Amino acid sequence: MKINTLLFDLDGTLINTNDLIIASFTHTLGQYYPEKYSREDIIGFIGEPLVESFASVDEERAEEMVEVYRKHNVENHDLLVTEYEGVFETIKTLQENGFKLAIVTSKMRNTVEMGLKLTNLDQFFDVVVTVDDVENPKPNPEQLNKAMEQLGSSPEQAMMVGDSQFDIQAGKNAGVKTAAVSWSIKGRDFIEKQNPDYLLENMADLLDILGVK
């Protein structure tokens, strides 16, 4: 069956929030554990729900740390977020060619909407499934299944596109094709080892994979 549905992660895939995420983690961890966590440690947290990241640091104060992170993240959002090369044009082309598009992200809805609006990508996505909408975020397939249900699609028709191991694992768990982006902050070698079906050098590579002229 032909792919007609694309499920996209947001951060690190469509929009470059790496500087913002690292700055927000650095700010928060520096407040509670000065000089204990390196940039490499922080990169290891990227892609999983915030509460899980901070629970691994300090289970008792995890919720409190999440609030500190989110305040910093929202206040600095528009200063530090940019769009990856080729993303806008590719998403626009996919929509014009009748593909069903959804965002599937571990972020909360308010910051998802901020990022989509800032990069003008909001016009292309009628379905957005955030961490607020499910009991079990990625790598559990619940978010992907919810997006496919809202789009009227099946796993045979869908592909998950993301930058972290959680995206690729969620895609495999949902029984959909997977595409990883080579610009993942976790590194090309790391993301290749997750064995995605496709590795994208530029978002426009999707058009070739899907046979879009």
Briefly, what is this?
The chain has 213 residues and is of the alpha/beta class. The chain has helices at residues 18-32, 39-45, 50-57, 62-80, 87-96, 109-118, 142-151, 165-174, 188-192, 205-209, and strands at residues 5-8, 15-16, 82-83, 100-104, 127-129, 158-162, 177-181, 198-200. Helix 6 links the parallel strand 4 and strand 5.
CATH C-level category of the largest domain:
Alpha Beta
What is the tally of beta strands? 8
* Integer average pLDDT: 96
Shape: globular
Structural category is alpha/beta
Just name the CATH architecture of the largest domain. Answer: 3-Layer(aba) Sandwich
Q: Could you state the order of secondary-structure elements as H and E?
A: EEHHHHEHEHEHEHEHEH
Low-confidence spans:
none
Terminal CA distance: 19 Å
Quaternary class: single chain
CATH superfamily of the largest domain: HAD superfamily/HAD-like
Keywords: Hydrolase, Magnesium
Pfam families: HAD_2
Catalytic activity: diphosphate + H2O = 2 phosphate + H(+)
GO molecular function: inorganic diphosphate phosphatase activity; magnesium ion binding; phosphoglycolate phosphatase activity
Describe the structure.
- The protein has two domains: 140 residues, Rossmann fold, CATH 3.40.50.1000; 63 residues, DNA polymerase, domain 1.
- It is 46% helix and 14% strand.
- The strands form two sheets. Strands 5-4-1-6-7-8 form a six-stranded parallel β-sheet, sandwiched between helices. A two-stranded antiparallel ribbon has the order 2-3.
- The model has no long low-confidence stretch (mean pLDDT 96).
